[in-house]
Please model this.
Amino acid sequence: MTTPYTAPRPPMRETAEELRARIPGWGVDLDPADRPSYPRERYAPEETGAHWTLPEPQDGDPSRERSIEHSMLPPVYGTSCPTKGLSGVVRRYSYARFSEGRAAHWLLLLAADRIDVAESVLRSFATTRPDNPLTQTGLRAELTGHGLSSRRGRVDARHHVVDPVVVAGPWVLAGWAGWRAARRLRRALGR
Amino acid sequence: MKAMVYRGPYRVRVEEKPEPRIEHPNDAVVRVELAAICGSDLHLYHGMMPDTRVGSTFGHEFIGVVHEVGPSVRNLRVGDRVMVPFNVFCGSCYFCARGLYSNCHNVNPNATAVGGIYGYSHTCGGYDGGQAELVRVPFADVGPTKIPDWMDREDAVLLTDALATGYFGAQLAEIAEGDTVVVLGAGPVGLYAARSAWLMGAGRVIVVDHLDDRLEKARTFAHAETINFAEHRDVVVELKRTTDFLGADSVIDAVGAEADGNLLQHVTAAKLKLQGGSPIALNWAIDGVRKGGTVSVMGAYGPMFSAVKFGDALNKGLTLRMNQCPVKRQWPRLFEHVRAGHLKPSDIVTHRIPLEHIGEAYHLFSAKLDGCIKPLIVTDAA
Model:
């Protein structure tokens, strides 16, 4: 069946009364001007609870990395996981050199994330609780959460095969590289 | 204290971490009672968000009890039960003064394009999150609110992001009486957006996903029509067919960066991280909405570029509206709706998991096993 392209709006399938009867609260926020986010910008600093015009700065590290699109270090910031190691050098370079508008900024940060993971894995082997990909990936949920039947017929199951490669791939590559390095070292020492 | 800790893509565990301390006079430390895993946490978990550091604690949906307050805190006392919006915001900058709490300029050194978010990478400020026994809450006089006595604790934790974001998404869709609204994604935010669209007078609400249990929830919880996109060769054509070939008046993208439905887009974005996000849902929204219509984007995307069909958006004269939700701006109205029974957010909770089992919780939610729609993390049982 073809639908003619005419001016009237297609009629509502249910009347307002029918919708109100079927759906609790239908239309209680009908007036766009009476919705909480209208208008988008509404100058009302007295409503926020702030009793300062400028927050005082928190105790902290004035050399903390920041976007070069900021004029200064903002007064409040998170202090989780300060930069460290080679990943920290890459992160600080990315923040110091590139604005948020540059792909290089984000690609360097993503690269630093991967370096951070490698450094952290190595560091964990010097602790009493080394990284354990089996427990940390929560694979037990495959058993308790009906892994096979939950995926049956799902369109996204075809890329689930990629997930183990993404997770296990770096471990396999690192193990292979380590084995090659150890073999080369052993040969060099044996000469 | 015990806290969820990120160890690398797809790997998390519970660790003993130092307790957070008061670092600013208006800080509080909150002992977490209940937290949630958000769909956007999965972007961190999958290693998609730049500057997600090993050792950080996720979790931007949480409620708890005030454990300690800084010297300038006036509105809260130790022992108060509070719900904390996912936004960290100062209440006094140019943007906060205008109600754009999610765009605060005083709380995120790492980026100017996004405000502060608990437990959401250094790109969002470097704050630890609430999937832990204790969490630092900056600007305690601005963000947190005491939980009303009548409010269920699961409803309270869902108000800290998911419900507020879904409701906000429906507002940005600029719904008028009788409008046809399509919601892409039947996760928590999509379900709440669909339910909220009715409150704003929608005439039809259609939810699109590929997971049968979520589509069932869209029918029962959100009273919506549903489309399983996996059953259609081209879901955009199906959207046109069901809207008299005009397109929907508005479409809400409640999927974001890891959308399925196009293998190339999904793998290049979600797996290879070559895009800021997989814009499948966003492109379907652009193509499925009518000319002159509105696309509301609530799905989270990373800061890098994505292959968005911007030409179609231009040629169709669309209005694109989006933001991280300024949660606290929604609360007074949402409190009314929850109290009146118009919205019952906890109806979509499927799993309640102790903090000790955080690895399993993330895997369950990430792989969408066992019909998981919304997992809560119970920290007070830890």
Observations:
- The longest helix of chain B spans residues 327-340.
- The first strand of chain B starts at residue 2 and ends at 8.
